[in-house]
Design goal:
6-stranded antiparallel sheet, 118 residues, alpha+beta
């Protein structure tokens, strides 16, 4: 459980930092990112809201996306990242693709190599 908390906390911190940088670059006051008690909320105004949260009992990170809906991500040591078991896609790749489409600009969140973030 200690490893889960270390990896998930580092992932959430990196995600928050990169989303803050992205929103600062965009400069739209209708968009905001907030992180409290293990829950990260990315409000994109008319584009919808992402909610990403830790789920310690399951050792997962859960995502609720305005585009793809709910997904549950497990840490995969072999690839050192968080992956959705149904399609094998990495958390940062999915969010980067969706945010790129929503915002009309290339978005790369660089969430791979999770152990190096911790």
């Amino acid at each position: 459980m200690e490893e889960y908390h270390s990896l998930s906390d580092a992932t959430m911190a990196a995600l928050l930092e990169r989303l803050e940088e992205l929103l600062d670059d965009i400069g739209n006051n209708d968009m905001e990112v907030d992180y409290h008690s293990g829950v990260l909320t990315l409000n994109l105004g008319p584009h919808g809201t992402y909610v990403i949260n830790k789920q310690p009992p399951n050792k997962q990170i859960w995502l609720s996306s305005p585009i793809s809906g709910p997904k549950r991500y497990d840490y995969v040591p072999a690839t050192d990242d968080w992956r959705y078991s149904r399609d094998g896609e990495e958390l940062g790749a999915l969010m980067g693709r969706e945010l790129s489409k929503l915002l009309g600009r290339a978005v790369t969140l660089r969430l791979g190599s999770v152990s190096s973030l911790a």
